[in-house]
Fold each of these.
Amino acid sequence: MSQVWDWLQRISMGWGGAIALGSAIASGGAPAIAAERLVIQLGAIETTVEVADIETFATTGATPERFARYERFLTPAVQASLNNRLSLDPAVRDRFMADLTASPKGQQVLDLFAKIAPQLPPETLIDTIHAAAQDPDGLTALSLLRAIPTEELTIRGGVLMAFLWQLGLAQLEQATLSRVLTVEMWQPVRRMSRDVDPAAEGPQRVRHWSLNLRDRARDRTIPADLYWSNDPKGPVVVLSHGYAADRRFLAYMGKHLASHGIAVIAVEHPGSNVEALSDDSATILPTQEFLERPRDISFVLDRVSELNQISERLRGRLNLDQVTLVGHSLGGFTGLVMAGAQINPSALADYCTTLSPSQLAPADWLQCAATEVNWPSDLDSLRDDRIARLVLMNPLVGEFFGDTGLSHVQVPTMMLTSTNDSVTPMTTQQLRPFEQLPNAQALIVVVGGTHLSVGDPSNINAALTQIPFMPELPAEETERLRQYLNGMVMSFAMQETPQAARYRPFLSAAYAQEFSTPLVPLRYREQLPQNIARWLRLSDRLDYYLAEPWPLVASLLHLELIDMQHQLVALQRNAIARLPFSLPLWGYLHTAPSFYLAAAAIALL
């Protein structure tokens, strides 16, 4: 029961924030009538809840008498979710609302709310959201209730519980996968000996140029930061930021690599950077940005190549023919396209038309926006042969490339995923794509990491961290992760140089685990563990043959059984370590019914 309630707590906070986010996206007048009662229908049973009682609990934490039977569920976490406030720039609110009402995915969400609350069809719900945004106390779940233009609102509890059940299953699956990956990805290592430390600051003086490069053919100005030194030692590294970030998102990495002689170009994509959130565009992410981002980088490489030849200070020192591209989130998509990945518009369209609202992640809003893109007939026009290596951090991949599009990426690729990333969930955005990449070098798992954990703490867009589904870890907790990324990216880029063998040992589990901490453990493997690969294959088959929610139920069961295996092995090891005669106990545990039950169930799956 406690586990079920944990689900409901996560749901209440996550979707309370999501409702608040939706409510924050518009402006309008306050209603003359506000909801006073909620009538919750569950089959033939009806329960009436007074909104005043909800407000009393939210304000004081005291349980109203009429809520006495539900007291065990009214925890401080639920109280906090009722009081969570969210504020967004008005321009962003309007654009988010436009996307919500105009996109197929947004229409599905509105239709779902209409099924849960029949008195709130889409047009009424939108008016309610407009009114809620004007509450002087800020936008909360309570301000949304106050904005409902009817005294009594009926909630279909069966529909709501079915939706929350599927949402809870999805969240529990991610939590279980995180536990399983932590164990499956671990491997015993020996302490490394070294004559160089790629994570330590280098000896060279870092030079920094800020560039504004005008592309007249596209009527577009691309800002870029060039970090370099007088004694370059390797190929250039290009940094491509994610949505609503800028060229400074990985500034710490640019400075570090340049101190070792590796020149870095941090590109800013003007259509999807911080400023793009507050411009006059009608949508959150203009669809042409999926095309313009790769073109931005190719254009910047062309201009810096010219600068490299004509500048007296550079004097041809930069190697722009073997570029290592580091892409975060949408920047990861950008890198894959430039390395030859083939977009599959039909696969993307099929996915977006069948996706359930309970499965929606922020990444799905972005990738489904790409169904409106007029993709060029020759997708190779976005490819750039100067891209020799890829480092993908929390990349947005999903269904962009179908089942075979990633097979065209032949360059060595590193993939990083974070287990608490609710923006680009690891299963669909990183684990499956990692299996499809023909030249994937390694998967790095940041246990407990979120979508923004790899960023420079002093250069993360503060507005992003206020969104409920984009929490961020304190800077001190992720410091070791950033140090590791500095050393790993440097060692990976140096594989294009005569010093490759010297730096190859740093591309290993041993090196990753040196930077692992109890709060943010790091895992590194060159291939997916067999249990995880088998689970992915099973999930794909179940999605094809079964209707919701059964694929998710079976997937969760499979992961729980793997987790049970881990617990049994841990029990065996602890028992053997404590007892002088271990063989009889070992034999008993291997013949125990629970062990065989778990093993048989996994085999059947």
Amino acid sequence: MSLALLVVYVTVVGVLLPRQLSQAGWTSHAPRLAAGTWLVAAASVLSVALLAAAVLVTSLHTLGDAFVLLLQGCGWPPQLRAPAGSSDYAGLVIIGWIVSRTVHSGYLVCRAARRERRQHRCDLRLLGEPAGTGVVVLDHPRPSAFCVPGDGGHIVLTRGALDVLSPAELAAVLAHERAHLSGRHHVIVLLPAILATAFPRMPLFTLALSEVRRLVELAADDKALRRATPATLAQAVLRLAVPASAQHPVTSPLNATGTATTERVLRLVTPRPRRTRLAMLSRLLVAVSFAATPLAAVALPAATDLASHCTEATTSRHLADVGLE
């Protein structure tokens, strides 16, 4: 896989594909698979971009040689020992830039998330009233429900929510929020958040962030349906709906303010199309292809070199055996 092909892959998947994937109807019917596809595509583009920069320093076959020699304990191939030209240094600079921005953004995003969760827990200890295992009630008139990850996780309900929700609707809301916590959706959202912060001009990363946030809401709805009927959950979503300009009394990374209430309700009350195994398999293959591309870019040259080496070694042993005879 040449440098040109790697650049084309980054361009197509990172710039052209996101809009098509975000408009695909199947993502709403299989939110977990769709979220996984977004995450794998984002990780794939980042990996291939690093490989493209590495090709400026050395060839993919040389990387394959390095893989084989390291397996044999023979050290690095001579081509990897030191940069020799301007393209080599350019590749190293690009690699350093990508890695440094990713690491720095990861540090900032994770630190902000930890601080926010810590502040939420402090606020809940001061203002909240425990109401069962992991559930805290805030004295606020606006109907709201959300979860705060960390320290075992907390589900926050306002007095307004308790006033408007029936027992069945309350159970559905609690199941939805517990699905967020058990699915560790706050962790799933971190990867696209880090990449969108590091590379805000890359359409794939920015769209992945908004889409993954939307999809984890739908995935939580699906899990909540194991304990509630679609009509009950839809009614609960409507009762907790707030104007777009309103904010939760305590914001949470997983609150649904940015997720269209209309989409969630329509999805719950509309009969879902039948999902065939062939359709699901084809979509799964798309996600697998994203994951396989950066691996194949290095593994294929490595496999070729390893096969060549094994053939030469077998031939040498055969000749030696013949000579001994």
Amino acid sequence: MKPGSLTLRLSLLFVVAVAVVLMIVGVAFNELSRHHFRALDAQALGEKLEAINQIAKESGANPELLKARWHTLLGAHPDLSAVFLKTDGTPFFAEPPQSAAPSLAQATQRDGVWEWENEGRMFRALTASISLPTASPPLTAWLVLDVTTHMHFFAMLERWFWGVLLASTALSGALGWLVAKNGLRPVARVTQTAASMSAGSLKERIPLGPVPDELRELITAFNSMLGRLDDSFVRLSNFSADIAHELRTPISNLRTHTEVILAKKRAPEVYEENLSSNLEELNRLSGIIDGMLFLAKSDNGLIVPEAVELDLRTVISKLFGYYEFLAEDKGIQLQASGNASIFADSVMIDRVVSNLLSNALRYTPSGETIKVSIHDHGGRVELRLENPGPEIAPQHLDRIFDRFYRVDPAARRRRECGAGAGDCPVLDASAWRYYLVYIPRGPNDLHPHLRAVIWPTNMTCRPDSLGTAKPGPTRLGGHETGCHCAG
């Protein structure tokens, strides 16, 4: 069922609440009023019975004097009738004379008072035993009060109540609609701001201003979401631009070579040589595309890691073997120390460490040493890579782990391809998580270094030695004062 207008729903709830309250008040007032009138009638009848008893005691044995005084007492009240019965049920005295003892077949007793209706009229009665001063048996006295005026009053009161209830319900509905409309104005402003958002206006924020506390958290969360969307959109735009730039160079090379070869007729050997060159360029282009697909799958959680127990020293030694010839050509030594075991995906671990070594070899001067050290701290495993490369300027620290980002702009114009330090997939396999931190050179450090830290995923922040962890989106990295989590 499609939900209706929130203003209408609030108005209806307001109407229902007012109607229920008025009903409760009306029922309570009706019952209390009836009880009050019943008590007043019982009090009046009780006072008459006391006066009748007092007259019976003072009149002695003269029945005529007794009846005369009772007539004087009761005859002045047209709504009051009395019947005095002997023990055999015959009447001793009645006022008015035509009065008879009431039939209690349809009567009910409430608060000690008999109450019944007869032919559209309502009566209340009290009965008592009247002792005579003579030795005669006591009389049974019935005092009956006609309370039809009370019944008419309550009938009129009920009609007024239903009229007031209907009018109040309609008025409360109108007032509820106005109150709900006014109360939901901040929501309307939020809606207008959200509707005006586009890819070019993600930097706009909804001002908090004088908004209700109930909406303050919503607006704060919405503004935070806009900030995350803006950051993701900027990174996506940069990533798209970087992809285009990375692919432009090999495609441009292929086109240039092909145009040169086709410019004139050449020997078969020349065609074969250039086709081999084109194949090499195509293979490199295929590798770039495969890497980008891997990054996209990794960022969207489409790669399911297969956790196995790994010996990090063995992983480092294997990768040293892959880069041994490149390191020898550049006159760089590779050095490893320490050991630790973790549960992680072997392919992802190889990719992370391989990318770190590749970047280190690219920027380490000839004749220097790249040091990789492994430290097992019990609750976490730390892999530290240190090389004497150039210091990274502070303005680049926030982006060094972005995909394809390079500190040196000239590197974009060279034929070097890769995803940069950002090509570090999360090692969230089994119970371990991976963080990558760039630490500038400190007073006791010879060189700046990268530190990869792996520890159980149930730890929500980095150990104190690395500062305070700051969860972030799909990139891995940061600097000493704030590392981004890729988990």
Amino acid sequence: EKLERMNQLTTVMRTYVPTIKLVSLTTETDLTEQIVQKRQLLDKNRMEQSLGRNLQRLRKYEKKLVEEIQELKRAEQERPDLSFFFIIEGKTIKDLQTRNRQLMRSSGILGLKPLYKKELIKILYRMNNMNDE
């Protein structure tokens, strides 16, 4: 899969004719949703334990869930998320839209997504204030 993505990235860089920049940024990893889901499973498990069914199996499952939550918290603190962004330029909005479509077509399996204004503002802020966390 990594090789396919690298080949696709190489293809994009060769076939996309207009000026393009590739920027990489590290950001904090946000695993809040996964942690919340694991906590919900843990609460459900504890509820079942209070009913007294399959206690031994449920205790093992609880231990596993607690370990997974701790691992997610550790990953959130220790592993930054590496993201890549293509920057394209255009003189007019129509030119920019055309180049955007061209980039999306040539990107193939990379799974590029356009950024919404709010996300774009955050990224531009990060790019211009690298020491500000």
